[in-house]
């Protein structure tokens, strides 16, 4: 079997130090910012927590639904889940379900979110129809 690099060359030398440390792991702080920007139109308030410590493997997002309910969400590789029923609150005793997407989580928490999301989707479809696409 032929090898493209000399056997004495370490495989890890092909990567710089940053990519080795981070690998394929997403930076949850950046992911949290993207989530907030994506669904802010459909909630009353949403922001990444400044009080709770975020890291590359976990971030916390505060959200207030259109119904006025406040939640603290935890974002990890496992997904999103409710960890508190107030901003910047983490209740270790809560054993809530993980959701793969923010859409799924908010859909279970807020009828107002569901309506806003549906209306936005209808507006986009109507715009596409008007543009003849």
UniProtKB/TrEMBL annotation:
Domain of life: Eukaryota
Signal peptide: none
GO biological process: regulation of canonical Wnt signaling pathway
Gene3D superfamilies named among the record's database cross-references: Hypothetical protein (hspc210) (3.30.2280.10)
GO CC term, one of those recorded: cytoplasm
The GSKIP domain, residue ranges: 29-128
MF-aspect GO terms: kinase regulator activity; protein kinase A binding
One family name in Pfam for this protein: GSKIP_dom
Family membership noted in the UniProt record: Belongs to the GSKIP family.
PANTHER family: GSK3B-INTERACTING PROTEIN (PTHR12490:SF4)
Protein name listed in UniProt: GSKIP domain-containing protein
């Amino acid at each position: 079997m032929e090898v493209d690099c000399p056997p004495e060359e370490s495989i890890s030398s092909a990567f710089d130090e940053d990519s080795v440390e981070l690998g394929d792991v997403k930076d949850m702080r950046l992911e949290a910012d993207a989530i907030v920007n994506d669904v802010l139109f459909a909630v009353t308030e949403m922001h990444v927590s400044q009080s709770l410590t975020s890291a590359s493997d976990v971030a916390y997002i505060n959200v207030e639904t259109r119904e006025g309910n406040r939640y603290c969400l935890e974002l990890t590789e496992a997904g999103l889940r409710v960890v508190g029923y107030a901003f910047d609150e983490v209740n270790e005793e809560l054993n809530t379900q993980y959701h793969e997407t923010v859409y799924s989580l908010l859909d279970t928490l807020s009828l107002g979110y569901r309506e806003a999301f549906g209306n936005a989707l209808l507006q986009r479809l109507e715009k596409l129809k008007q543009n003849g696409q």
